[in-house]
Design brief:
The chain is an alpha+beta fold. The chain folds into 4 domains: 112 residues; 150 residues, no CATH class; 113 residues; 156 residues, no CATH class. The chain has 20 helices and 20 strands. Strands 1, 2, 3, 4, 5, 6 and 7 form a 7-stranded antiparallel beta sheet that branches. α1 crosses α5 and α14 runs antiparallel to α15. The longest helix has 33 residues. The chain starts with 8 loop residues before the first helix and ends in a 7-residue tail after the last helix. The model has no long low-confidence stretch (mean pLDDT 91). One of its GO terms (cellular component) is cytoplasm.
């Protein structure tokens, strides 16, 4: 029962201190995101990668700081529950005119759950649902920051190119373009081709989010082209050319292109946002199929993404009746994987014990997942949501699954406490994909010589090799390269999702299998040569990967270099020399240098 009167001055002081903690966090988060513009302009790619890694840690550091302050100044953990009830109400009042209320509510939850025992922080003491609306928040007229969330432009057939030039210049990138009028003409040509022969309506306009999205070596200008009843999302990638000047590299247009750009398998963007909810609302209008939690994640606001995901999960459980089950596919030796058939995610628990061939520990596995979280995932490694103490209804679990968890990961489950709950102590959650080995089996079942089977094998094997090469470009060696450790995502994209054996490419020692010195060694069924802990022999991949003739034929035609030590060693040496590879979130055929000749005048 919440109090009818706010009569605790201490409660207000605690609420004020918590909001101060959040404001400090978002101020630092935003400042680091804003500095991405300067790093892009100065081509500081190493700095950009470092900042992307370090920014991920900001949130937990600020939560820890706030918890320590509340304990030291207010003895927060010793306060009565009626004080904590008032803390939440005061906090809501402080958020009425706040520009990031949804993020501040999540920060409140994070701090509160560090202070109070789990039995106390159910509905009454945390924000299970948002309390403050994020609709129609906008920077006030005359405020310190008068930049709107998006700008609108109104081109006509005669001014289209000039408006596009002005639109790009409004982003104030402090580096000279090689030929912006040329790039604008190309953008206009492709946008007009997308519209086809549709007449331009009275509302014809371009709406552009006011700040660029930075990731790796690119800046992305995101907006939508509106004509009549249609809105067409698009993005313009801006890159550094070989001459050091800027150039627009492509036009990504349509929801599918935007979904690829904002994929869950890519690193988070850096973007300076005063009102993140307004950015999310705009992006959701461009990608209505993308959940809001994944958009927050893509913007680097992973804690808010986790909050929204958990709310979506609880909402789904309220409106469904199927049960969590052991996930289809080959069982892993390190992770126990289960899913809810009607929900497009998988849940992973680290097992308590591993077979002898897996020389690893729980902490090492967690370290691998953290590495992936902080690394450039180049569209080839699935992002994971990491949770602790997740309570779910016992009645929604198959008995077989409960038995499996109690057998292989008993330390990760707690059942009971009077509410019929299953509490998962530590769980990773990822987007569900079709395991690549099952996807290939579907093709084999359809017939490797049938048009469908042949096309599916071709696309899967080519994508598999492309995925490995993209990971290599990002300084990642997958470790276990078996088909079962990769999945097929939207649009047939192959993504890696088994991280317990990944290593930095530069930490690996790539070797060729030595020639046998005698007949005994040649006929030996065992490895007769010395193998160090980081030694990799690429030529030995073939027996494990290429057993099916149709798979072998496609693989050798497109990716035979993956079986050669020289390929891996050359990539390692390039990275060690300081090369930051280009891995594009769009197909090569979309690039202007593939569409237009250098001398072309549109």
């Amino acid at each position: 029962m919440f109090p009818q009167r706010l009569d605790s001055p201490l409660a207000y002081d605690i609420a004020r201190a918590m909001l101060d903690g959040f404001n400090r966090h978002y101020r630092l988060f935003r400042a680091e995101s804003a500095r991405a513009k300067h790093r892009f302009e100065t081509a500081d790619w190493r700095g950009q990668q470092r900042a992307q890694r370090e920014r991920i840690e900001f949130y937990d550091l600020r939560v820890k700081e706030c918890v320590m302050r509340l304990a030291k100044e207010f003895k927060a953990g010793e306060q009565a529950m009626d004080v904590w009830q008032q803390v939440k109400l005061h906090y809501i009042g402080l958020l009425v005119d706040h520009h990031q209320p949804e993020l501040a509510e999540t920060f409140f939850n994070s701090v509160t759950t560090k202070i109070l025992h789990r039995s106390y922080f159910h509905n009454d003491f945390i924000f299970v649902r948002p309390a403050v609306s994020t609709e129609y928040i906008e920077v006030g007229i005359g405020g310190a920051n008068q930049r709107p969330t998006y700008r609108a432009y109104y081109p006509t057939p005669g001014t289209f190119d000039a408006v596009l030039v002005q639109m790009v210049n409004d982003f104030d990138l402090q580096r000279v373009f090689d030929d912006l009028p040329r790039d604008a003409a190309r953008v206009r040509q492709l946008l007009q081709a997308w519209l086809g022969d549709a007449p331009l309506r009275a509302n014809f306009q371009i709406q552009m989010l006011a700040t660029p999205f930075f990731r790796n070596k690119g800046a992305y200008l995101c907006g939508k082209l509106i004509n009549g009843f249609s809105a067409h999302p698009f993005a313009l990638p801006v890159l550094h050319g070989a001459n050091g000047r800027l150039a627009i590299d492509a036009v990504l247009i349509g929801e599918d292109d935007m979904l690829m750009l904002f994929s869950f398998a890519r690193a988070y963007f850096m973007v300076d946002m005063e009102i993140p909810s307004a950015y999310v609302q705009f992006l959701r209008s461009m990608m209505p199929r993308k959940p809001r939690n994944e958009i927050y994640n893509a913007l680097g606001l992973a804690k808010q993404g986790k909050t929204l995901f958990y709310r979506d999960l609880l909402q789904h459980l309220n409106h469904s009746s199927d049960r969590f089950r052991i996930a289809p596919g080959i069982k892993g030796m390190v992770m126990l994987v289960f899913d809810l058939p009607s929900f497009p995610y998988v849940f992973k628990l680290i097992k308590d014990h591993f077979p002898p061939q897996k020389e690893t520990t729980r902490e090492q596995v967690k370290g691998k997942y953290l590495l992936v979280k902080q690394h450039d995932r180049v569209g080839r490694m699935a992002d994971t949501l990491e949770y602790s103490e997740v309570a779910l209804p016992r009645e929604r679990f198959d008995d077989e699954l409960i038995a499996e968890i109690e057998k292989f990961a008993p330390s990760q489950i707690e059942i009971g406490d009077g509410r019929g709950e299953v509490v998962l102590k530590h769980v990773y959650i990822e987007r569900r994909m079709i395991p690549l080995n099952l996807y290939l089996q579907e093709a084999f079942d359809a017939g490797a010589d049938s048009p469908r089977g042949r096309a599916q094998i071709e696309s899967a094997v080519v994508e598999y090799g492309n995925a490995i090469k993209d990971l290599v470009a990002a300084n990642i060696f997958p470790g276990d390269m078996l088909w079962k450790n990769f999945g097929v995502a939207r649009h047939g994209k192959v993504v890696f999702y088994d991280y317990d054996e990944i290593e930095y490419l530069t930490d690996c020692n790539f070797r060729s299998v030595p020639l046998p010195r005698n007949e005994e060694e040649e006929m030996s069924g065992e490895v007769w040569y010395r193998v160090g802990p980081k030694d990799v022999f690429p030529e030995t991949f073939a027996p494990f990967l290429l057993g099916h003739p149709a798979v072998r034929e496609v693989f050798m035609r497109h990716h035979a270099d993956l079986l050669a030590r020289d390929f891996w060693q050359a990539q390692k040496e390039r990275i060690q020399a300081g090369c930051v590879h280009d891995v594009f979130p769009y197909a090569q055929h979309k690039r202007f240098n593939q569409i237009f000749t250098s001398k072309e005048t549109p």
